[in-house]
Model the fold of this input.
Amino acid sequence: MVDNIKLIEIPKITDPRGNLAVIEKDTLPYEVQRVYYLYDVPSDAYRGGHSHKECMEFLVALSGSFEVVLDDGTSKKRVTLNKPNKGLLIPTGIWRELENFSSGAVCLVLASHEYEEEDYIRTYDTFKASLIDT
Ligand code: TYD
Done:
């Protein structure tokens, strides 16, 4: 359910010298198996456009901002990520699209699984059909 998807606060240590945010073992409900990041994304580009069968992902706007459209097949929700100490945990079975990247935006992704193309559902029709199957 997209309603249950909330931003998670990342603990931070504030300091006049600059802030430090820490993602530790207990911050996420899985052990991180892969880290990747999107950067130099043109403002008119769309990223994502898929769901995952097993992989969960935690997205953080390390810099700048972008929007994530979450879709559980019934409802949609648009979330703006624009803080380095707030992340979005996307469970399995959620169609996501990323858009409206600001200049200089960096989207960090902490994934629960290694990259496997077989884990992706890349067409919306297949995504909808996968929900009926389960
Ligand atoms: P894609 O899933 O389309 O990116 P996004 O969902 O962020 O828009 O991935 C783009 C390409 O990068 C595609 O050929 C798969 C490849 N890729 C990897 O090789 N490893 C990875 O961890 C990821 C996320 C993508």
About this structure: The chain has one domain: 2-133.
